[in-house]
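Please, structure for the following, as tokens.
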Amino acid sequence: MTAPLDIEGPAAPPRSNGELVFAEPWESRAFGMAVSLYEAGAFTWPRFQAALIARIAAWETTPAQDEPYNYYQLWLAALEDVLVGLCTVSADEVTARAHALAERPADHGHREGDDHGHDHHAH
């Protein structure tokens, strides 16, 4: 089951030449976390999509826009809304995990030559 990502509209993720674009490593982690939880059946995609659209709309209507628009900050906030709304986790747990993910080094889990524990033997 793959997440039905919007190609157009307010909830559509940033793309370049059709490919998803992530400016920072934490953005791809936030994206992957939401998609993985959806694929595991933690929530329905329309529920997440509605939360994301609500977060984007709230950002657009906020009079003091002192922070620049960041799609993935809103994505992560929408994921928090959905998980807290489902009582899956508490808001404090989400915040703590988000901070822990954001503080991981950019190359965490993607070291050159790291085969992630897979044996590659010719048969």
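Residues 110-123 have pLDDT under 50 and may be disordered. The first helix runs from residue 25 to 39.
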